[in-house]
Write a structure and sequence with these properties.
Order of helices and strands: EHEEHEHEHEHEEHHHEEEEEEEHHE
Number of strands: 16
Shape: globular
Helix content: 25-40%
Largest sheet: 10 strands, mixed
Number of helices: 10
Strand content: 15-25%
């Protein structure tokens, strides 16, 4: 492929993430958008209004013959769309979660390998300087770890409507959990061995077999343990909605959230404000040797800038032929843990991995 020629991209799904990715391609001269796909007619950002919106992904794929497909649709279509794109010779960017079953996720990875094309999964926190710093500082502390993480969202109006749409296919602990379980897995290189989950349906507005509050626990081979909690809806509390905390025998590293932040503000989900490092070491008098260290994360990228960074990575992966084997394997691993938690919620039994 000519290094200077823009990569022709077809963007499927124009919800919150799809719109942001489409803007990232539009603003990056390394890409050329050849078409957008959405089943309904969306309200487009002014910059995107010149592009044709196609109602059917498979038809657009056959007609436009893009180099890259960006799949930002609901989770249950990710695997089929991605495999079709690989079979058509395209590279693929797919939003998380990669699929709704482990078998489907593995099918997508196999299709990427067979086609010899790049597969990047939308783990936005992997491109965030503050989260990279949190992972680096936690790894310095050393295992075994305790991971305490949540992202609860008190949603109403359009945000609650989006959450209800997502819950047609995916529970909150799977949809959001893959990010934070991925962070746990990056900090401890140990394999997850057991997962437990519990959940509760707190709204008549979602399917009888779906739950809008969930909590998972994961046990790792090195003795590390972690939990992740996610709840969506108008009944969710704003108290302690954002906990990102890693402890080890040597101390702790935490994200300290702005006390005025609101849980349904999308930039809140990625902004870290301050990373606090606590060291457990004490002197002869039993008192701490060092005060806690606050690392202020100034000039952080906002949500759109993070999507721009993700697509810049996609461009590099294609042009520089980056090896994405580990990236793909880790995406499947975090999904496996979250889907095991979902199974545990539904069966009431722990799941051995």
């Amino acid at each position: 492929m000519n290094q200077e020629k823009p990569i022709r991209v077809l963007v499927a799904g124009l919800g919150n993430m799809g719109r942001s990715h489409a803007l990232a391609y539009h603003n990056n001269p390394g890409f050329e958008i050849v078409g957008l796909v959405n089943r309904s007619t969306p309200e487009l950002a002014p910059q995107l209004q010149g592009y044709t919106v196609h109602p059917d992904f498979m038809a657009a794929l056959a007609e436009l013959k893009p180099d890259l497909c960006s799949i930002n649709t609901y989770s249950d279509s990710h695997a089929d769309y991605a495999v079709a794109a690989f079979e058509a010779g395209c590279h693929v960017f797919v939003e998380k979660p990669l699929a709704t079953t482990v078998a489907d996720a593995e099918r997508v990875v196999a299709a990427a390998e067979k086609a010899g094309r790049k597969l990047a999964i939308g783990y936005i926190l992997r491109h965030h300087p503050s989260w990279m710093k949190l992972i680096e500082e936690a790894r310095k502390l050393g295992p075994p770890y305790v991971f305490r993480m949540n992202l609860n969202q008190q949603s109403s109006g359009p945000t609650w409507a989006t959450h209800k749409s997502l819950m047609r296919t995916t529970s909150p602990i799977v949809d959001c959990g893959v990010h934070y379980v991925d962070v746990m897995c990056q900090i401890t290189d140990a394999r997850a061995v057991e997962v437990r989950g519990m959940g509760l349906r707190m709204s008549e507005e979602i399917a009888a077999d779906m739950y809008n509050y969930g909590h998972l626990q994961v046990l790792f081979e090195d003795g590390s343990v972690g939990w992740y909690e996610a709840g969506w809806g108008p009944m969710i509390s704003e108290t302690a909605f954002f906990v990102k905390d890693v402890m080890s025998p040597k101390g702790a590293v935490s994200i300290v959230m702005d006390p005025n932040a609101k849980s349904d503000d999308i930039d809140t989900h990625t902004k870290t404000s301050v990373i606090r490092l606590h060291t457990a070491e004490t002197g002869p008098d039993g008192k701490f040797i060092r005060p806690d260290q606050d690392m202020r994360m100034t000039g952080e990228p906002d949500h759109q800038a993070l999507c721009d960074l993700e697509q810049a990575f996609m461009l590099r992966a294609i042009r520089e032929d980056l090896n994405l084997d580990r990236h793909m394997a880790e995406a499947v691993a975090s999904l496996r843990i979250c889907l095991a938690a979902d199974e545990s919620v539904r069966t009431g039994q722990p799941v051995r991995l």
